[in-house]
Amino acid sequence: MAVAGATSSGGGEKADAAAWLAVIAGILGALMATLDISIVNSALPTIQGEIGASGTEGTWISTAYLIAEIIIIPLSGWLERVLGLRTLLLGVSVLFTGFSIICGSANSLGMMIVGRAGQGITGGALIPTAQTIIAQRLPREQQPIGTALFGVVAIMGPVVGPVIGGWLAENVSWHYAFFLNVPLCVALVILLLVGLPHQKANLGELAKADWLGIIGLALGLGGMTVVLEEGQRVQWFDSSLIQITTALSVVGFICLFAGQRFASRPVIKLSLLLDRQFGSVSVMGVVVGIALYGTSYVIPQFLANVSGYNALQSGLVVMISGIPSLFLMAIVPVLLKRLDIRLAVAMGLLFMGGSALLNARLNSLSVGHDFTDGQLLRGFGQILSFMFLSQAVVQSVPREDAGDASGLFNAMRNMGGSFALAGISIIQDKRLWLHERRIEETLNANSYTVQHYVGANGGLMPAAGQLEQQIMNQAYVMTYNDIFWLMGVGTLAVLPLVFFLRPLPKNAKPAAMH
């Protein structure tokens, strides 16, 4: 059966210009969405200061995006059937840009969170639909080219995001990290109108939707995230907010599981998790999400709070992890044929866990180049883990469940990122307080060392201020070391799950990933 937009040339099919324009549109949309996952990371300290958010509250700027993506990714296939591919992409592209303008204009944390959640709920649909365009508009012989282009964007978007965001924050304004999406959207809309044919909407699908599951997914994940993010700050269940959101989360998950029982086509096919291989892949996906999103968030925070780096300098350090990813991407087809999946995933997890443990040995004099080895190791680890786990997802379920499995795997990985950011917020609060108190306990006001320090620094008041700053600095270093250590050990802890993986077929082709 010929692929729409393909023309015959010689012995095989070739995609025409309109088909390639559609593919470029899909990849451009995915680029916008993946860039905005991390474009705020390096500029986050600056943004927090300007909108009046604390370090703990600032994690919401990243978490809101990830949670919204988790909700929309499994719904993308259904929305495509309801609205048609072109209508869906035009709608989410325009809305994504509108929410980007809200983020760029934000002067409060609440306004920023609304904008970021809107970006996630619309941008999340841009990523799987890019894969759909490649599958629908390119003939089989040319699909590896489209998949490779998508893979480069999927990997490099989150990596170069902090650099672009950092450069704009330092040389223009952090607001333009979001306004950048306006010209990209204009180009995307033009490409979609030219490259994709209009499809008639099928509003009858609305009646068949798993509304219990959709509502449950939003309430369950949204409520759980609020509990994790805000619980520590408001003393957990002493707060009516936590009590209410916990109840909503429980109701949400009940609705989600009810949808599994009563819906003809559940929004997320959770029964797939009962498969030994797919369940193992999903757990590893959560852990990889924790390691990836957690480290890309913590490194800029350390460099800003301890090393005094600006947003651009922090972004350049984060970008180092993209170098091995680009190198390996070119030889992935060879690796898929030659390298046993169990060995590849084990190596990926070892590299990612090892990189976090390398970063757990920081001190107050650590600067950007102290992250180089860890970042290079992480880059090798993430491409091995992502590519082979993505391939395992496709191979571990029946062909008719491949779309559901891909959506569930991507949602699980993003959930890992959300858990990481919420967990970092809690750990940072608790460990920072603990380390400050422990350091203070070692300082006796009557000791010779303290008395000498006071005398050498101009008396009690000046010395007290400097000493407090030094205690805070050391406490930050110890806290970030704790976070890196936990991420490293947590990543290595799932290594035994690789034994549940089955070898890939010898003719395996790269599976699209996000």
Please explain how this structure is put together:
With 514 residues, this protein is mostly helical. It is 74% helix and 2% strand. It contains 21 helices and two strands. It has helices at 17-38, 44-51, 55-72, 76-83, 85-104, 109-137, 143-171, 176-179, 181-195, 205-208, 211-230, 240-262, 276-305, 311-319, 322-329, 332-338, 341-358, 372-395, 402-441, 448-456, 460-493; strands at 6-9, 12-15. A two-stranded antiparallel sheet has the order 1-2. Strand 1 and strand 2 form a beta hairpin. Helix 3 runs antiparallel to helix 11 (211-230) and helix 13 (276-305) packs antiparallel against helix 14 (311-319). The longest helix is centred in the C-terminal third of the chain and has 40 residues, at 402-441. The radius of gyration is 24 Å and the shape is globular.
In CATH terms, what is the architecture of the largest domain? Up-down Bundle
Label the overall shape.
Answer: globular
Order of helices and strands: EEHHHHHHHHHHHHHHHHHHHHH
The number of E-state strands comes to 2
Ordered list of secondary-structure elements with their pairings:
Elements: E1 6-9, E2 12-15, H1 17-38, H2 44-51, H3 55-72, H4 76-83, H5 85-104, H6 109-137, H7 143-171, H8 176-179, H9 181-195, H10 205-208, H11 211-230, H12 240-262, H13 276-305, H14 311-319, H15 322-329, H16 332-338, H17 341-358, H18 372-395, H19 402-441, H20 448-456, H21 460-493
Antiparallel strand pairs: 1-2
Please name the defining characteristics of this protein.
21 helices, Growth Hormone, Chain: A, 514 residues, single chain, two-stranded antiparallel ribbon
